[in-house]
Structures are given as C-alpha cells and as structure tokens.
C-alpha cells in the first residue's frame, strides 16, 4: 500500500465544500460499475495539538481539564486525515450524507498535548449493508522517536442508497430484539444548536448536523447530533483521567434528532474489587428507541496488540 504524505491536517470545512461542488462524486455515487477503495494511505507527520481547541473540546464534552488528550479528541484530531481519503475523486462512495454506524478504539497510553503526532489513515472493508454500502476508515496516531502507535480508531460509515452490484438487501436484514430500557443513570438535554456547537470545536461541519434546512437538503427530517459528540461525552464520563490502556466501542442504532432528550445508563463491572469495564446505552424515553450502546474495558482484558 502506497502512502501520500500531506503537509498538514486538512481543514474539514474545505473537504466538505469540495464535496458539495464535486460533480465527480455524483457520477461515482450513481455508477453501476465496480467500486474499489483507493490502495493508498494518507499521512501527516509531526502534527501538533492546538491547546485552545483542546480546552474547548474538554469543556463541551464535560471532560476534566488535563494536559492529556481525551480519547474522543484524538479521533477529532485524526479524523480529517481519514476524511481526506473519502474526499478523493477515486473514492467510490459519496462523502456527503454518510451515516456513522460504529467506532472501535484502542487507547494505548496517555497522550500529552505537546507531543508531535503522526496520523496515518486508510480505508478498507467495503461491504454491502441492507440500507446501502458501508466502509471502514482506520486511523492510527503514533508518537515519540520510536513511532509507537498510541491510539488506533476504526470508524464504520454507511452510504445510504448506494448498493453494491448483486448485493441481496433482503438477505442482509436482521430482526432486532425488543429493547427494554434500564433505569437511567443520567439524562442529557441537547439543544437545537448541539450539532453546531460540536462542529465549532471539532471542525466537522457536515451539513446534516448544522440546521434543519441543511439536514433536509441531504434527506434528513431534522439536524442530528454528531455520533462522535455522543461517544466522546459518554466515554469521557467513564474514563476521565484513566492512565492504563483501554479500549472502547460504540454502535449507533438510531439518530438523535435535535433538539433531544437522551436517557443514559452506565454500568460498571468489577471482579474481586478490580475494575473490569463498563457498558452503556442511550435511548429516547418516549419512543423507547435505542440510540447507541457500547462498552469500555481495560485493553489488557481483550488481548489486543498495538501492532495488530
């Protein structure tokens, strides 16, 4: 796999603007030909965190003030490099309107904000989905002279309505078990401006999150909360300043349309007084629709390696 080295972390606003005006994207999204992911990695070396942006992020997701990067912020820092892959003319799926399905993250050690970081991203596992086509974007963040990987994230996105040839949508359908909500441990009240607020600190100005009008233009009934805002906030609540390696995952099941009230339950587990992890779930208490669920656990418990 070849590597394209970028001069700096790309600006997400420019990438979205390019996607809006890209006729090539429209042609690709409607093409019935084969869809192939770019066999190329994008990489930025020696990138430095903006302390003011970090502070704003910590404040927004209710993370304690610290010199070390919240795991959700690392995603925000690395995401534009992955996004630059999706903005390429040879990327086989349309960037705008992508739906966030899942995140899986390994956080190997505390990352100080002053450390120069190298971000490497690539795309893999293009696959059919009952509602379209999904793809996984992988981002690795490394630091230090040895270039050790300190964080790895895998994000799964869905291009709705874009189907792979010969993919059987009926076969991919799966029945969901009825959701019985637990007793909530918290309730989040999110205003209509929650998407704009997160965009301001993350740079993720995807139109589906900004306003009712911009979301409707892309087929949504209202603007919706960023998946990474929801993930960053719940994981920050669980992890805060934990120093040992850990991993977390989150699956998004139904969108959080803004404004919204989200019921949340976090359950911690222990084995002989040793913390073994947490599970969480967020839902709409009126409709009983589950918005997201996931877990956090010490990385050693999973047997994963930073070189896997």
What tags apply to this protein structure?
11 strands; 24% helix
Question: How are the SSEs placed, and which strands pair?
Answer:
Blueprint: E1 2-6, H1 12-20, H2 23-30, E2 40-47, H3 51-60, H4 71-86, E3 99-107, E4 117-129, E5 132-143, E6 148-160, H5 169-172, E7 186-190, H6 194-202, H7 212-216, H8 227-239, E8 246-252, E9 260-271, E10 274-283, E11 290-298
Parallel strand pairs: 1-2
Antiparallel strand pairs: 2-4, 3-6, 3-8, 4-5, 5-6, 7-9, 8-11, 9-10, 10-11
Helix pairs in contact: 3-6, 4-8
Protein name: MaoC-like domain-containing protein
GO cellular component, one term: fatty acid synthase complex
Domain MaoC-like: 179-273
What would you call the quaternary organization? single chain
CATH class: Alpha Beta
- Tell me about the biggest sheet? 11 strands, mixed
Total DSSP E strands = 11
Q: Give the SSE string.
A: EHHEHHEEEEHEHHHEEEE
CATH architecture: Roll
Number of helices: 8
Distance between the termini: 16 Å
Q: Write the CATH fold name.
A: Thiol Ester Dehydrase, Chain A
Helix content, binned percent: 10-25%
Q: What are the low-pLDDT stretches, counting only 5+ consecutive residues below 50?
A: 27-32
* Strand order within the widest beta sheet: 1-2-4-5-6-3-8-11-10-9-7
Query: What is Rg?
Result: 19 Å
CATH superfamily: Hotdog Thioesterase
How many discrete structural domains?
A: 1
